Amino acid sequence: MTKDDKTADPTKAMTDMMAQMQKMGTDAMAAMGGDWAERMSKVGTEVMSFAADRMKQDMEFQQKLLQCRDMQELQQVQSRFWQEAIEQYRGEMERLAEMGGGMWSMPGQKPGSKD
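That's the Phasin family protein sequence above. Prediction below.
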């Protein structure tokens, strides 16, 4: 193939398209501003922290199950675990909803305000 050949190179075409899409995404992020990126970072940190805490509690739950001496104790441990887990997930969803409520405000606008 020569330089003058107009035959399309599918690899180059795909690379060019991906570069263009990446630029479009970067431009969109820049338009949203640093406030939005900071909020997204906080949400990500919150989710990761919650997941780490839940994993730790899940492991502790397994240990407690292994230490149960009878079925009644096992049922109590399970019941307590599920009640706490449901409450924690509910609380986390509330926090994320509150954090997410301000995700789409304009740069410089207080999250949750309609001004």
